[in-house]
Write a structure and sequence with these properties.
Blueprint: H1 13-56, H2 64-83, H3 99-108, H4 113-123, H5 128-141, H6 150-156, H7 160-167, H8 173-177, H9 180-204, H10 209-220, H11 224-234, H12 238-265, H13 270-280, H14 284-294, H15 296-311, H16 313-330, H17 341-348, H18 351-364, H19 370-394, H20 398-404, H21 407-430
Helix pairs in contact: 1-3, 1-4, 1-6, 1-19, 5-19, 6-19, 7-18, 7-19, 9-10, 9-16, 9-21, 10-11, 10-12, 10-21, 11-16, 12-14, 12-20, 12-21, 13-14, 13-15, 13-21, 14-15, 16-17
């Protein structure tokens, strides 16, 4: 973007501060939106649907105070079981409708409009990631980003990396083993296969290496996290994130609204459906939504397959190091320009990926309590990601997008579609046995 910053140079911090503060403010505002609209209003929609169902069936609704008391007592009993060691998972606090919302449902026999709005925002995956990227792009390409703010917006981008490290506290190695060897085979074929195909296709199409590296990682592994991991290896530009993440979110949104119906049409077993969406849908949030839509058993299987995919991030990084750095250097006739593979790996391998797996291991060893794990993996990680994506969005200019060419979307989308079709045929041929998780 024409602005270079070195976070290790203390002398540059003052010039980074104004733009970084802007990214902090944007991140805070959008996280409030995410909590209220995508979070509270979405949960309100679910609770309102539960309250409305018996009313439509002609049953007498409870008075508000009785409804509220029933929810509180149910939560209290669940907590007592958890504290007595009878339940392993701590119960979540129930969502209790406000009195005015509850009475609106009773009087109108309909869900309040604000809850419907929140549900729609959640369905279209307009979470903080999408809003920050799209909002940042809108600012950059309309009113523009003043030069005094640009160093700070660039400095905000690397905050995604510590977010990925913290995310590791939410996963366990033991979960990976539950799907058995066939789960690993499934992921190896479609994760590495997709990455390799996109890399080769991108070379033939003479597409930018940074763009194809991000696209291959995002489409093959697990969306945004994989793309971020590969970015420093392939020297990706902010515009590359737009193409890769745009493809991931577009394909995932279409899949979210079509895969459940395809599954029903084909009468797929829940475990088979879970293995399919866990392999085929690129974005974790959309994957979970599509699996939950189909059923709880499907969600359990999809989550485990997704964890296996995440475990392949370092392998995809190593492939990118070989294909985009070591291989081109070896093709150079001058021996002085050849690179030592191990030396390149040491220089290019993102250290924060190792931090991610250290956190996974600590979680496996019960180092984190459930409360701490949820705080890290759900709340704190969002803060770092939000700051980083605010910086990314503010550094995406349409002028840069024009230079990339539209073939990137086609390559990524076609590869994702072919991967989904082949994965469906594969899991249907295998059957539910290897993918079923005992509850």
């Amino acid at each position: 973007m024409g602005v270079g910053v070195d976070l290790t140079d203390v002398r540059q911090w003052p010039k980074m501060l104004p733009g970084f503060i802007v990214c902090l403010l944007l991140a805070w505002l959008v996280l409030q939106y995410d909590k209220y609209v995508v979070g509270d209003l979405h949960r309100g929609y679910g609770e309102a649907s539960k309250v409305l169902k018996p009313i439509k069936e002609g049953k007498e609704p409870l008075p508000y105070e009785d409804y509220k008391k029933q929810k509180e007592e149910s939560y209290k009993k669940a907590m007592e079981k958890y504290q007595a060691g009878l339940e392993k998972k701590k119960p979540s606090k129930p969502f209790i409708l406000k009195k005015e919302d509850y009475e609106f449902i009773l009087q109108n026999k309909a869900i309040p409009g604000k809850f419907t709005f929140g549900e729609r925002m959640n369905q279209f995956q307009l979470t903080y990631v999408a809003v920050l990227l799209l909002g940042g792009m809108l600012i950059r390409n309309t009113v523009g980003v003043p030069s005094v703010l640009q160093p700070g917006t660039v400095a905000a981008r690397p905050f995604i990396k510590p977010g990925i490290i913290i995310l590791g506290a939410y996963y366990m190695w033991s979960d990976v083993l539950k799907v058995g060897l066939i789960g690993f085979v499934l992921v190896v074929i479609f994760v590495l296969g997709t990455q390799i195909v996109i890399s080769l296709w991108g070379k033939k199409a003479k597409a930018d290496d940074g763009l194809m590296g991000l696209m291959g990682a995002g489409v093959g592994v697990c969306g945004v996290s994989a793309a971020v991991a590969v970015a420093p290896v392939v020297n990706a530009k902010p515009r590359d994130f737009f193409y890769a993440i745009g493809t991931i979110l577009l394909f995932g949104t279409i899949a979210l609204f079509t895969f459940p119906y395809i599954g029903k049409l084909l009468n797929l077993h829940q475990a088979v459906y879970g293995a399919w969406v866990g392999t085929a849908i690129l974005n974790t949030a959309q994957l979970v939504a599509a699996a939950t839509w189909y059923g709880h058993e499907a969600l359990l299987t999809a989550n485990v397959v997704n964890i296996v995919r995440i475990g392949f991030i370092p392998i995809v990084v190593l492939w990118c190091i070989y294909y985009y750095v070591v291989r081109p250097a070896r093709q150079v006739g001058d021996v002085t320009q050849r690179l030592n593979t191990w030396q390149v790996i040491k220089e290019k391998f993102p250290i924060f990926i190792l931090g991610f797996f250290i956190m996974v291991t600590l979680n496996e060893l019960k180092f984190f309590s459930p409360e701490v794990r949820d705080l890290l993996g759900r709340d704190i990680v969002k803060i770092f990601m939000a700051i980083g994506f605010a910086g990314v969005g503010l550094n995406i200019a349409f002028d840069d997008l024009k230079k990339a060419g539209g073939s990137a979307f086609a390559i990524g989308f076609i590869a994702a579609t072919v991967k989904a079709i082949l994965a469906l045929l594969f899991v249907m041929a295998i059957g539910p046995g290897p993918f079923t998780i005992k509850q």
